[in-house]
Amino acid sequence: METQNQELLLFAFEYPPASGGIARLCEGICGTLADRVNARVLTQDCITSVPDTGLLEIRVDSRRPLREWRAFQWLRKQARRASTIRETTICGIWYPEGLIAYLAGVRPLVILAHGAELLPTVDRWRRPLWKALQRRVLENAKLVIANSEYTHQLVSTLAPKARVETIPLAVDPVRFAPGDRETAKSKFGVTGKRVLCTVSRIHRYKAHDTVLRALTNLAPEEREQLVYLVAGTGPYQQELKKHAIELGIESQVRWLGFVSEKELPQVYLASDLFVLCTRDAPEERSIEGFGMVFLEAQSCGTPVVGTRTGGIPAAIQEGEGGWLIEPDDTRTLTDIVRQLIRSPESFRIAGRQARQRVLRENTWECYGQRFSSALQSAGIVYG
User: How far apart are CA 25 and CA 28, in angstroms?
Assistant: First the structure.
């Protein structure tokens, strides 16, 4: 058992002020472990102001491939230093961070696994080399942390000798908390409406079109009571807007575009139901390994609908503020939305149940305890 003084380094290019699920996860890990161990962050430079997290941050040039080279040089120097300090490096993703750290000789390594990054590359000619690199990096890590059993299985199939632990994701229940819904609805101009929302990048596999088709199944007088908020941007956005017009429901859809991390809780609060009906598209390296947005919505007291695909079932508990449907099942989704119109109070109750489940199982305190236990079981002991 290690007895040296120990520190922790988080190596993640996706880190605040960058947005996205991986950035929020890495921020949360640092926050929950900072009180237990000396921690610092290696990430990329940014042009916007950086919030003070209280952690030492090493930022390298963000221009690629200079970014990767500078990070490698810095890590290589750390690996060669003579010290009584044993530093564990947590990599935000296996590539490029995990590969860079492995090549730099950094040990021990802990790698976070999310889902889509583990799928074969789109370019078939690269697949054999890519697969070999993945296996080498993952199997040489001291520990791989998967966000769901689905992602755990992806890692185990790809790298059979890798040590993998599953830890469901977490959310900040203070930042994502119930609040004044009427004020939030007023902010988005949807006062008096039943509101659905989706928060995600607008890709085809995110299946916003499933929601649009469900809306068309409603009677005109039912649709008039609804507004669908679409938060996010992406390559499928223009086609999706055209699709809404073709279906004759453009007046029910509000395109919010990019929503900042600061404003995100207000979107959830303005909504009576969060919906994300992802369909798997492995040939495009597009899956949902977990879905942090489901936890964020539930933490705000907003019930959720997701699909039985990828790792989404790990984020939703049916009967406790959530519904799971099959991909492209517009009929069941229509029934759920119709129920929202007819019985809004039952959805408010479901939202409160969702909030309580998050507080029991998915806070950063819970995540930190599980994370620390996983590190200790892998022989990484802080003290």
Answer: 5
Structure confidence by residue, pLDDT tens digits, 22-61:
888 898 888 887 767 788 999 999 877 666 666 789 999 9
- 352: exposed, middle or buried (C-beta count within 10 Å: 0-12, 13-18, 19+)? middle
Q: What is the pTM of this model?
A: 0.90
Residue pair 374/183 in contact by the 8 Å Cβ criterion: no
Q: Is the pLDDT of residue 210 over 60?
A: yes
Digit-coded pLDDT (tens) for 299-336: 999 999 999 999 999 999 999 999 999 999 999 999 99
Structure tokens at 26: 């890495």
Measured in residues, the chain has a length of: 383
Backbone angles phi, psi at 316, to 5 degrees: -130, 135
Using alpha carbons, select from 5, 369, 8, 382 the residue that is nearest to residue 165.
369
- CA dist 244 and 231 (Å) reads 15
CB 31 within 8 A of CB 368: no
Residue among 275, 256, 252 nearest 184 (CA): 256
40, containing H or E segment: strand 38-44
Confidence category of residue 1, pLDDT binned at 50, 70, 90: very low
Q: Is 20 left (phi over 0), alpha (psi -120 to 50) or beta?
A: left
- Domains of the chain by start residue, with CATH: 6-170+363-377 (3.40.50.2000), 181-361 (3.40.50.2000)
Q: Which residue type occupies 235?
A: P
Burial pattern 354-382, b for ≥16 Cβ within 10 A else e, equals: bbebbeeebbbebbbebbbebbeebebeb
In Å, how far are 11, 53, 75, 78, 168 from 41, measured between CA atoms? 6, 10, 12, 13, 22
Q: Which residue has the tokens 């119930």?
A: 178
Q: Determine the pLDDT at residue 2.
A: 41
What does the alpha-carbon distance between residue 63 and residue 153 come to, in Å, rounded to a whole number? 34
